Amino acid sequence: MANRDALRAFQARLASRLQAARSAGVSASWLAVEAGDGKYLFPLGHAGEIFPWTTPQPVPYTAPWFLGVSNLRGELYGVVELASFADGGQPQQVPEAVRAQSRLVALNELLEVNCALLIDRLVGLRGAESFVEAKAAADDAPVWMGHVFTDDSGVQWQEINLQALSQQPQFLSIGA
């Protein structure tokens, strides 16, 4: 119950910060998250609702990064572990107590894919003013990887184009 209240409070703070940013003329462009060793930026227009961790129902004969399906507000969502999908590795075995701190970020319903990405930590909202450098993704990077941004601490953040990701055959083909 405490986790649910904390999530509601976080979402309320996030919504109020977004509203304040809009009224102040500052545009928050991304939702910053951490997954595995990666730091990612989701365009706000592509990201949907944020849910607390819900253990998905496993689906047999699927890719290792596809964790199964979860009932989120009465709808079934496929759950993808972002870290293992992005780096092509195996999902990490994380104790349930640690996993309880994770979140599921649903793709915006306009993308027409009932999918939620498992992330380890929400960092918050970021705008262009949060970064000192931006460079295009590497030539061999997947098409869903956008620019790489560097903040004033020297930390690099990979932009993920969730719309492009949701249309990729390797993302849509969950079969093993």
TrEMBL record:
Lineage: superkingdom: Bacteria
InterPro entries from the UniProt entry: CheW-like_dom_sf, CheW-lke_dom
Organism: Variovorax dokdonensis
Protein's recorded name: Chemotaxis protein CheW
Pfam annotation, one family: CheW
CheW-like domain: residues covered: 27-171
Gene3D superfamilies, A to Z: CheA-289, Domain 4
